[in-house]
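User: Predict the structure for this protein chain, please.
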Amino acid sequence: MRILVAPDKFKSSLTASEAAEVIAEGMQSVIPHADIDIQPLADGGEGTMRVICDALGGVVIPCPAHDPLGREILAGFGWVKKSHLAVIEAAEASGYWRVASQDRAPWVSSTIGTGELILAAIQHGASKILVGLGGSATNDAGVGMAAALGFQFFDDKGNLIRPVPSEFLAIRNVIRPPCQFSVAFEALSDVTNPLTGPRGATRIFGPQKGVIPEDVDRLDAAVAHLALIVERDLGVTAVDASGSGAAGGLGFGLVAFCGATMASGFDVIASLTDLEARVTACDLVVTAEGSLDHQTLDGKGPGALAVMGRRFGKRVVAIGGRIADEEALLGTFDRVMPLSPVPLPLDESISRAAELLGIAARRLAMLETLNQ
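Assistant: Here is the predicted structure, written as structure tokens:
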């Protein structure tokens, strides 16, 4: 029996690589003669840099940057020397994990750190930069990133504007930096949301970044104003582009300020890891993620993997730390299994994730052997 183990991360507990090792070990203990192929998943969010670097023989280059609140941090970008390719995650410098939940402040949070990583990659000699657009704590449409790259934003009196959402309504002009970079950018997203409107960055993702309900419309309007100025002055049209709302509008910013093309994070990583051939060669696909729900079926790695598996007539099963919308999930997966058979408090699930995942993998292997 040949099994492909391809999980995504379990946020705050296990990386995709760690989860893959735990699942493989658990299944091997029950099916000792199984031939297990391991490929950690990512779809543009956290873990993307590591998965791509591992696939292409890259390394992580550390460099100083700033977090969403402007505090100095040490971050890094992926570097594949032979192709002069840099891989950057929005979450690396601008992610949730950098800011405690009680300190999240979307009106003054910035992607400046992501811009600093981009600048460092360019100075390192990058000819192409992949930017993963998941897990950001920001809602600044990439303006902080742009400021780090030399773009300037002015009010109606010619004063330089601080590049954070609380100042967006005062912006009247955007000026490009004097030197343009000859670098190809590709933005990797796992969502298709536009920048503004009912499905836009602020309304859909803002609340989880700390936007209070009474501020949603006001912040969305501020971002829309900024976008109009940017599109007028830079001659781009990106507000309604698929994925422009990813990472608090960083997708928009990459297209508008850097000329990036948008791509499915899963599709890019699947191509780099030869995932189709590996799915074709296996008898069973096992995936997993911290949360399996309706979003899983809308471009997330495990859901996209399940669709691929179905296309080749393979059974695809999934383990989830949290499972919701099970009926919808079973329309795509052949089986979904919770991390624990009994509900556990979130903090316990996180602290015991490796142990529970190993047990779940053994339980899943036993069930699958009964299906043979």
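The CA atoms of residues 112 and 243 lie 20 Å apart.
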